Amino acid sequence: MTALAPVLDAPTAAAVRPLCPVGAAALEAGPAADPKAAAARAMPRKLEFGLSPEQLDAWHRQGYLHLKHVFDPADVAAWHEACQEAEGRADLAHPDNLRVQLSPDPDGGAPRIWKFDPFLDLHTTFGALGRDRRILDPLASIYAGREPRLFKDKLICKPPGGNGNGLHQDYHWWQGFPTSLISVMVAIDPADEENGCTEVFPGFEQGFMTERGKWSELKLEQIRASEGVKIVTEPGDLALFHCFTPHRAGPNKSSRWRRQAFLTYNDAADGEHYFSHRDHYWWYVTRHRDAEAQRRAFFL
What we know:
Blueprint: E1 2-3, H1 24-29, H2 35-42, H3 53-62, E2 64-67, H4 73-87, E3 100-103, E4 112-116, H5 124-130, H6 133-142, E5 148-158, E6 165-168, E7 182-187, E8 198-200, E9 214-215, E10 229-230, E11 238-242, E12 247-249, E13 258-267, H7 274-286, H8 291-296
């Protein structure tokens, strides 16, 4: 097991939180003279794409949700165009670029980028995706009306023959950060068992299942393995899962690429952590490099 970088203890959730964030100006202004106006401000705003009571109940029971047909074919086509543009950028495809990870081209060409981390800033289409209410409103439903704050964004382009991921909880990598973290998987290509879809398991209510400060995969005996659910998605689907939700993904045994965007958010009540996480991630991916390799590392 590999020791993680020293981190602060995760923030403790307040016993009672307001239903929606309050701006600094409102706090400075003090109580409103009109109690009806104050009550109106305290009410959470309407969420056009919020979760239904049944969906919220399912989320709280199982720690994941599969939302089908959230985005339309025009959105998916725009994502594919943006992916092709990003994947074709030779200036990014460098082994010392901390933004990307490379894999051999299955067709025998130059190594190809299989992971962009981060990716939202690479294209206006990607940037709009991270701010889309069809993603933010379901999360705000879970956060009792409070806005989600972006924590991490990555684009996975799993090639034919690409490896899978072992059984784990995402909080392994995020120890010390808020435990309100929720990842949203956006299906760009179809995902099924053959090309390595994500499989989720119950048990998120148990919290963090491994020794704090260490990283290791979960063991099957720690979870109810027989209750695993393979999330088979079509382009435009979303899958939400909590940072404590056990999950894994199989290898890509097909001849098809499997592109998925992963956007992770935390409750606004837990603050802003995007750049502190970025620093931690860069430490993580360079920690075993020698001094010369660390000197060569750059971000583009």
